[in-house]
Design a protein that fits this description.
heterodimer, A: alpha/beta, 7-stranded mixed beta sheet, 17 helices, 18 strands, B: alpha/beta, 18 helices, globular
Amino acid sequence: MAQSYDAVIIGGGHNGLVSAAYLARAGLKTLVLEKRDLLGGAAVTEEIFPGFRFSVASYVVSLLRPEIIRELELPKHGLDILPLDGTFTPLEKDYLWRVNDHGRTIRELRRWSLSDAEAYEEYGQLMVEMARFIKPILSIVPPDLTGLDPRQFTPLSGLLRAFQKLPEKQQAVFVQLMTMSATGFLRQWFETDPLIATMSASGIIGTYQGVQSPGTAYVLLHHYMGEIDGAFRAWGIPRGGTGGVSEAIGSSARALGAEIRLEAPVARIIVKHGRAVGVALESGEEIQARAVLSSVDSRLTYLGLIESGTLDPEFEEEVGRFKFRGSSGKVNMAVDRLPDFTCLPGEGEHLRGAISFSAGVDDMERAYDDAKYGRWSRRPYIDMIIPTLVDPSMAPPGKHVISCFVQYAPYKLDPSLGTWDDNREAFGDAVIDRIAEVAPNIRDIILHRQVLTPLDIERRFGLTEGNIFQGELSLEQLFFNRPVPGYARFKTPIRDLWLCGSATHPGGGLMGANGRIAAMEVLRAFGRKAA
Amino acid sequence: MSTTATSSFDAIVVGAGHNGLVAAAYLARAGVRVLVLERRERVGGIADTVEIAPNVRAPAVAHTVGRLRASVARELGLRAHGLSLVAPDVRVFAPQPDGREITLWADPATTAEGLRAWSGHDAERYVGFDGLVRSIGRFLAELNAATPPDVKSPGVGDALAALRLGRRFRGLGKRDSHAVLRVLPMAIADFVAESFETDALQGVLATRGIQNTAMGPWSAGTTNVFLADSAGNDGGAAGQTVYARGGPGALAAALAAAVTAKGGQIRTEAEVVEIRTVDGRVVGVTLASGEEIGSSIVVAGADPKRVLTTLIDPVVVGPGMCWRATNIRTPGTVAKVNLALSGLPRFPAAGDGADHEARLRGRIVVAPGIDYVERAFDAAKYGRSSELPYLEATIPSLVDPSLVAGAPDGTQVMSIHLQYAPYALREGSWDGRGGELGDLALKTLEQYAPGIGSLVTARQVLTPLDLERDYGLTGGHPYHAEPSLDSFFLWRPLFGHARYRLPVDGLYLAGSGAHPGGGITGQPGQNAAREILADRKRWRR
């Protein structure tokens, strides 16, 4: 006889695990099914080269919701976040270095521009206000504006009232954040090119947009929410790599009674009379469930796991419209020494934070121009972290690991370039070349190198088109449109089937909010049934 | 009231562009003593006709007037004041580098038939796409005709308006209402790709999403620009192609006649250099001549950045508002080239004889593909003009021979909108460099109409700098403020000031910088006049 559960969750990424933990906590018999032999999805730590452990994909954390950390008691389950201090932007002969020490940053900015130094303070305060205002949005179930049920608008009207209480200037700035380009927004305060370029980089992470594209200011805000209002008030890296977060959530879920099965790939969701009643594994095994939650993206769920003919073709067309367009790659390196920057030689504090290869707005924009026409950026934007400086356990003594997040690497290459399998190493070389411009010793210190193209990200992590957010964070794919207009409330057209991954509101990033709200909605539905 | 005022009016309109004239006409019609002050020697602003060679008259800047709201034309009796419109059967002719063409006709079914040569799929989808554009366009027209609600202290009227809009929204049906919410912030390249596979078709459609903007087809929010262009007119997917007989100046003349017929006054060569205030209230204006004219209402047809940062005492505006006004984005990217031609240029892609001429009566659009337009835009990002620009040309003399009456037989006039020519050049300025843009336009056209250069008998070029200097458009922006998502509806031109009332008592905005934005629509002027009249009624009580 098939096993039976209250809830089965497809995918053991951070959101799937968060959902599982909350459902188990409410007493549901819960099972998580993970395809790979390790937990975490894109939040994993793997020993890629002997002795060297990497946060293979997702590599920093700040967005993880504080209520999740608290409610799931993650520190008790081993979560330990080590802060990363500052952002260092190496230039040819100079650098821009911002740190958490406000006074030092202001002194550094004065070196570039007095007015920028002055504006930095005002800007920082404003963004704190903005993050505070927008925070509740992260835990809202988006309303369906075409729906008639007035109750769904309650959280929105609360937000509206909060908005009305903001001073007019802040209201205006909020609107700008929702609509402008990252650079357009920042230029209202700043004039220093490397500063604008570096700050605006947060606006393009995971998007197929340039820093001057409208809509990127929102992504900037998306990244500020953790930075300012999260538990850690800065970016950090989990001890033991990003897998540490997944392990902690998984451990919490297990402690709460959830069952987790690895190497258990789901082949399809079993739908009977318009209801999801369980899943079939690739092994042929069937598992019954009162509710099925899918943490994989909307395309894989609707078009991959559900038998065709089950869903309305018009709905399927809408699902097909949701854009993924992965645009980022990852280069992980094992090195036997630290990189040495010409502009600030030697080892030092500047290597302990993020190292941002964003010398100017034009550089960033040209990197995007390449991608627009189906090429990987010849001079890419790189966000480099050296985790071993804060967590030496990741490499053998004296050695280091380097994580490079790279943009742009468009999933769809121009046909004249061939496939990503033909371009992987050349792309990796371009990254090294870019680093070597400011840290020439990079070529001599590399022991091993792993290049992940969007195709690799798709294959390895099951992220469609290699999009790290399970779907672009473009304006038309947010809130009540995410991932399908009319189906943004975690519910799907199939009863008892729910989405709980990054493809839902409020989008991607190591945040966990999606999994938590989805679980709450499932519990609400169960509660209503019980009553 | 200032004691030095030489005369006094109920309302003064600064700028006799089409929106200023529309606002003035509505005010005059309601019995308001109104005076329009225009810096130039002619009214109309960018809706004007100029003589570029003896007896050759060209559209000064804008060349079609089909976006004019029907209610404006009707209520102001523009036909009686001499306005006569011509709409050819052809909307757009888009020649391609390989010698083929895409033609968009007034009748979508005819267009679809022609598209069959490119793609059966696209031909099938065209009529449906046209229907969607019209459906959303009707909804947007309603939105455009409404004053954005008061978010600070919403009143009964705002609630009613919201309700009306909500009903309209539901009236769209589930599918189209979802579409509105989803597509407005989209990139036009994505929107057209959802329906069509032919790059040439995508390119020509996408141009209306980027026209007059500093955005490319891949920029978010350009679908909104595209749909707004089809709102409140018969444009549909192809967009409107309507000429005023006698050129756009005829529209300005009709509007001016509507003002004066109701007792309004218009003074040209009367540049306002200051909007005067006392205790934070508008009391009148000062002209460049030093003359002061009193009025407790001043209505700006000029762009909001100019008004708030150069015409009023910054102390009155306040530092916060000054900062915001300075940040109104006005990145002009458009140049205008007018040509007098000794004969009709031949576009081989347009076929022969009557067919050839029929296709050239509409807008001739050079935008062969999304990447072509996007690359044209790329140059602007780095402060250069496009090597291969997007062009929209018209030959209005084909439908309105009066434009060349008295000129040698066979003379035609061609009006070319060229994009992108960024106002802010990375190197140097546009001073004295108009010739480059004229050459660029001709070089580009030469590929589609070989020999056109040899037909040119006269040429006039307006760079973005000329648009700023001659027409008072800050940054050379024909829409007064970028029509991007950050300058839309409730937050055009500035959040909290979208209701036509600028942050100084008695000062109103009636130009393209206000909701619903630029283009020859008359809608901002009509909406502003309605709000001014409502305020006057309130004060009287």
